[in-house]
Write a structure and sequence with these properties.
heterodimer, A: 348 residues, alpha+beta, BirA Bifunctional Protein, domain 2, two-stranded antiparallel sheet, 10 strands, rod-shaped, B: 820 residues, seven-stranded mixed β-sheet, six-stranded antiparallel β-sheet, 21 helices
Chain lengths: 348, 820
């Protein structure tokens, strides 16, 4: 190979190495590989050579050109990589800048809880039954074995609508939904009835005139109190965690017989502390009421008591929520302070 | 019901080894909540002795008179005492050094007034026996007889070491409002023998001697016994033990005759009343008040009477409010020489009405309301006479009754029914034993048993009642826990799913859910400007707040209140929503049918019943106030505006599968120029827009606050979406700018474009809006992107141009022209 061709290689090598960025490199490549580069000129001069020399000279030029081109490619890749790395470093931002600048939404915790409970029971094969908040006295009381002169039907407990001849009340429980369900369909009935209910109590730490209940009603053949107990245990565990089961205590409700109060195992001490402030050392906390549907109620709704029996239970949603989230004052739930609701977010 | 255990022990031999908490546990398991346990043993510690006063030396020159007293207890000693109500020879109660009185009051020997006091002479209050602190206790030697000896243990004597349980009694268990009832329950709880307290009553015949008061039942009761006693000394003291028991049960000692009636009421459960016999004119009647105007009761209150009040009356008028409270005029006084004891079985409802009408919830009324054993009047009145004779002298004149105690219906039951309803194993033997324990009579000769409830259990009237008793006595903890068969569920209804999706959508969009009380004031309705059907709501007869007696006819006012409340607590911007019912009353509400409960109502009756409950709209309300996005490093704040509210309304309607169209509206409480009605078909589904500036100013809401109410409950349920085939052809895009008069609504232009563009016009999008030169002031320009696409071919430029021209031509009737 001729000396001048060899020099072309070393000159190109130097020029590529000296190019410190892609722009410089591009002009260096133009100088050493472009149309006016020495190697291009050398190629053009081939035609002036004698045909016998042409082949050998041509091969030499091509080999030099390839070598320069390879160097160029390698240098270009190197410079591109350097540039890319630099850009990534330059583009660094502070990812800890506050990004949520929109209003934050959230469902009311009572809604979240109600939906959770409905999902649980839908999973058990129940349907969700709902009814009006302004309700007929017959559905709210009479059909539930609460006769006209029962103390629950006084103005101390119930909101009545004027004129009293309309016989409309703000429902005191969601039980009228149970009655409507029994009037509207035949057994088997498996329903859960969530909803807003009303009693004429002043608002304080443990009472609110407007509150939410969830009631369950099952009417089928061979339904027993053991089924009730099993359902409540399942419910309690789903609400409060493994190991939280229920205890039934004999009680009295006009619409059930036998009747029971439902206690849950204290979710704070699990019955293991005599000093527990939540259960006052009793190991159990009152949760709701339940029982086998009173035959008088079944008869008023036209259910064949010789074929069917049933159970019902009812819990306060606020109370359940207080248990689950450590809320000590019911007013926090009902006052509508957005900071309270925001703690629960859109999902949990 | 406060129950001293010493009293219960007279009738059931509870072992001393049983702790109060063990007793409480069993009572709870039997269905009696114990609301409190007062264990006096924890509060008092001896030595506390009976002492006799030997000498009294008055110490003068102090702020108050002081006595230096020599007493004889187990030894002789001196004590200082500030009380003056005793004399030499009296028996008093002495707390010796080393003793501890209630309130952790430790007694020790101490120096005062230059003397050493070796103990303390006690008042009733100091011993935890009540509130009396007017002087020290002076024991009456005639009351305490042989136990009153110098040095005798006063703790035993005065029952200062009792345990009192405060037991809540459910309304169906009237029998447990007595020592008798609780003792019976504890006997069965611990399998101990039970002695019925009514055995304490002597067999005192009813003899109609001259002078005996005659009862006449006219209403409200089925059995009454009157017994008369004369020549009694009403001023004789009540035995200490009786006073102490009354006090532990929460009652005050009043006078011997009254104390005896109260004592028997607590012990048996039968309220009694003692009349001054001389003040009864003629027969004693149980009757309705009728025209009788008023009665002054024992507490001195003058009660105007209602026609249906149940009275005890004589020839002159009202003597007592039956089963509730006696009258002042016939009260036993210190002058009384003869007494008539009244023991009756009043009907629960009559007494409940008496008590409620006159706001007199008394020990007697609470018992009658829950049901008293109708067999008790004979025994209870006999025991009263016996105690009066014993403690106040006097002689029994005789007695008379009217009516007869009702008997309870026997209940047929297959013993297997218990297992069937409970779901556990209850053998015939267990069923029989349990029922006999509660005092029922069980005839088990046939396969179907016949169970006669005891007279004190009127609550037992059907099989299920008996099942509860067996389950209760065996223990609810024995009920197994199993799940019922799994039924078939269709899951949530479409409306329930819709409600959930809307709530979740709004929460995801940055709105916070609130749940407001649905009460509202007439002033707010007025302020909002609701009129006609939108203002017609329901009035609560007995509202919590007289200021807000109405049910909300609209969701927005409650949301405004919530926003204001939160702004008061520092919130600046709010996006709130609420889902629930609003109430609009129809002009007439159909009256409800008269329905019994003996059978299912007929289909017509059910229809009429449902029709008597007016529809209640299920709506979502939204309030957007302040900034949607706060000032931040990303840029300036963006305030919520009317368009945000309209966009939400449209999106909610889309969520329901329906299509909403926006129309100008001017409803209150919105800004008349910034209010829209969103319709689904012809149905006005929502009103939405910026709130009226007057409302914003009134409440101090952020400027331009916007709101919406959408009746999603009434929107049609839309079935599954039918999918259209997608075209893979390349769309043709055409941009146009139209100049229209400023009062022309964009919705109209878009509608016209779609109409003119025909089926191949896939989409119209507004991308710009311009006013100003060179347009006239009455003109505005809108720029739209029209997307055309055919399902089967790519449109040619000529075709697309023709379609665009056709679309534009359709807007000409709105006064539109192509711009430049």
């Amino acid at each position: 190979m001729s000396e001048n061709l060899r020099e072309l290689i070393s000159a190109a090598k130097t020029a590529f190495e000296q190019a410190s960025d892609l722009d410089q490199f591009k002009s260096a490549r133009l100088s050493h590989l472009g149309d006016k580069s020495p190697i291009a000129l050398a190629n053009r001069e081939l035609s002036q050579l004698a045909p016998t020399d042409r082949a050998a000279r041509g091969q030499e030029i091509n080999s030099v050109k390839s070598e320069i081109a390879a160097m160029a490619q390698s240098r270009e890749e190197e410079l591109t990589r350097e540039r890319d790395e630099r850009i990534l470093i330059e583009e660094r931002v502070d990812v800890t800048l506050p990004t949520r600048v929109s209003q934050r939404g959230g469902l009311h915790p009572l809604t979240l809880l109600r939906d959770d409970i409905c999902d649980l029971f839908v999973g058990l094969g129940y349907e969700v039954a709902e009814g009006p908040e302004l309700e007929s006295e017959w559905l709210n009381f009479d059909a539930l074995n609460i006769p006209a002169d029962h103390p629950a039907r006084t103005m101390q407990d119930t909101f009545f609508i004027e004129p009293l001849t309309t016989k409309l009340v703000l429902r005191t429980h969601t039980s009228p939904v149970q009655v409507r369900t029994m009037l509207d369909r035949k057994p088997p009935i498996y329903v859960i009835c969530p909803g807003r209910t009303f009693r004429s109590d002043e608002l304080d730490a443990t009472h609110t005139p407007v509150f939410n209940q969830v009631e369950g009603l099952v009417i089928d053949e061979h339904i027993t109190m053991a089924h009730l107990k099993g359902t409540l245990d399942h419910f309690a565990t789903a609400m409060f965690g493994e190991g939280i089961n229920t205890r039934l205590r004999p009680s009295f409700f006009p619409f059930t017989e036998p009747s029971a109060e439902v206690d849950i195992r204290c979710f704070v001490c699990r019955g293991e502390s005599k000093e527990c402030r939540t259960c006052k050392g009793e190991g159990w906390v009152e949760w709701g009421g339940c029982g086998m549907v009173n035959p008088k109620v079944l008869i008023a709704c036209g259910i064949d008591i010789n074929r069917n029996s049933g159970f019902a239970f009812g819990m306060g949603l606020e109370r359940t929520l207080m248990f689950r989230h450590g809320i000590t004052d019911m007013r926090e739930i009902v006052e509508g302070d957005v900071r309270f609701t925001a703690q629960f977010g859109v999902g949990r | 019901m406060k129950v001293p255990l010493s009293w219960v022990r007279e009738f059931v031999p509870l072992p001393e080894s049983l702790t109060p908490s063990e007793i409480v546990e069993r009572l709870v398991a039997l269905g009696f909540e114990v609301e409190g346990v007062q264990d006096f043993r924890d509060e008092i510690q001896g030595p506390i002795q009976v002492a006799q006063v030997l000498e009294i030396e008055e110490i003068t020159g102090q702020k108050k008179p002081i006595r230096y007293v020599k007493v004889a207890a187990s030894d002789e000693r001196f004590v200082i005492c500030g009380a003056q109500n005793f004399s030499v020879g009296d028996f008093v109660v002495l707390a010796l050094p080393g003793s501890v009185l209630p309130g952790n009051f430790a007694i020790s020997a101490r120096e005062t007034y230059g003397k050493t006091s070796n103990g303390m002479i006690c008042s009733a209050r100091e011993l935890g026996m009540g509130e009396d602190h007017s002087g020290i206790i002076v024991l009456d030697p005639t009351q305490v007889k042989e136990s009153i000896a110098r040095g005798a243990d006063a703790i035993e004597l005065l029952t200062l070491n009792d345990v009192v349980l405060d037991i809540a009694v459910n309304p169906d268990r009237g029998y447990a409002m007595s020592i008798r009832g609780i003792a019976r329950e504890l006997a069965l709880a611990f399998d101990l023998p039970f002695t019925d307290p009514i055995n304490l009553a002597p067999n005192l015949p009813l003899t109609d001697n001259p002078g005996v008061t005659t009862p006449k039942l006219e209403a409200g009761a089925d059995f009454i016994v009157l017994r008369s006693i004369e020549n009694i000394n009403v001023t004789a003291p009540t035995p200490l033990r009786m006073v102490r028991r009354l006090q532990m049960a929460g009652m005050r000692s009043i006078s011997l005759a009254v104390d005896i009636t109260n004592y028997i009421m607590l012990e048996f459960g039968q309220p009694l009343h003692a009349f001054d016999k001389a003040k009864i004119a003629g027969a004693l009647r149980v009757r309705r008040a009728g025209t009788t105007k008023n009665l002054v009761t024992l507490d001195g209150n003058d009660h105007p009477l209602n026609e249906n009040d149940l009275l005890i009356a004589d020839d002159n008028g009202a003597l007592a409010l039956a089963g509730t409270m006696g009258g002042l005029q016939s009260e036993v006084t210190s002058e009384t020489r003869s007494i008539t004891i009244e023991a009756a079985h009043f009907f629960p409802m009559d007494v409940a009405k008496n008590a409620r009408a006159h706001k007199l919830s008394t020990e007697a009324s609470r018992r009658f309301e829950r049901g008293v054993d109708p067999q008790l009047p004979l025994a209870a009145s006999a025991r009263a006479i016996a105690l009066l004779t014993e403690l106040a002298g006097g002689s029994y004149l005789g007695g008379k009754s009217d009516g007869a105690p009702a008997t309870l219906e026997p209940i047929p039951i297959h013993p297997g029914y218990v297992s069937e309803l409970i779901g556990g194993e209850y053998s015939h033997d267990v069923v029989q034993r349990s029922l006999e324990k509660i005092g029922a009579e069980v005839n088990s000769e046939r396969a179907e048993w016949v169970v006669t409830p005891p007279s004190w259990r009127p609550d037992l009237s059907m099989k299920a009642d008996l099942v509860e008793e067996v389950a209760r006595i065996e223990g609810y903890e024995k009920i197994p826990s199993t799940l019922p068969p799994s039924p078939l569920s269709r899951g949530l209804t479409p409306l329930q799913k819709r409600r959930r999706r809307i709530a979740q959508f709004l929460a995801d969009r940055g709105l916070l859910e609130v749940q407001n009380y649905p009460f509202i004031s007439p002033e707010t309705i007025e302020l909002m400007g609701f009129k006609g059907a939108r203002a017609r709501t329901y009035k609560i007869a007995n509202p919590i707040s007289e200021r807000e007696p109405l049910l909300r006819p609209h969701m927005v006012p409650g949301l405004i209140d919530a926003a204001v409340r939160n702004m008061g607590r520092g919130a600046k911007s709010m996006a709130l929503f609420e889902i629930g019912s609003v109430f609009r009353a129809p002009e007439t509400i159909p009256p409800p049918p008269e329905l019994g409960t003996e059978q299912r109502p007929t289909p017509e009756e059910i229809a009429a019943l449902y029709a008597s409950v007016p529809d209640q709209m299920l709506v979502v309300g939204i309030l957007l106030a302040g900034d949607a996005q706060a000032d931040s490093w990303l840029g300036k704040a963006r305030a919520y505006g009317w368009h945000d509210a309209i966009a939400l309304a449209q999106e909610i309607i889309e969520l329901t599968g329906n299509v909403g169209t926006v129309h100008r509206s001017d409803f209150t409480p919105w800004h008349p120029g910034r209010c829209a009605e969103v319709r689904v078909g012809d149905f006005a589904a929502a009103h939405v827009g910026e709130l009226h500036p007057r409302i914003i100013a009134h409440y101090g809401l952020p400027p331009r606050s916007s709101a919406l109410m959408l009746n999603f409950g009434a929107l049609p349920i839309v079935g599954p979406t039918r999918v259209r085939p997608l075209s893979n052809m390349v769309p043709t895009i055409q941009d146009i700018a139209l100049v229209v008069p400023t009062d022309c609504e964009v919705a109209e232009i878009i509608k016209a474009l779609y109409q003119g563009g025909g089926e191949l016009l896939e989409r119209v999008e507004l991308f710009d809006r311009y006013t100003g030169k060179p347009l006239a002031q009455s003109e505005i320009s809108y720029a739209f992107t029209l997307t055309f696409r055919a399902p089967d071919r790519t449109l040619t430029a000529e075709e697309a141009g023709a379609l665009r021209d056709s679309a534009v031509a359709a807007t000409a009737s709105l006064g539109a022209r192509l711009r430049g």
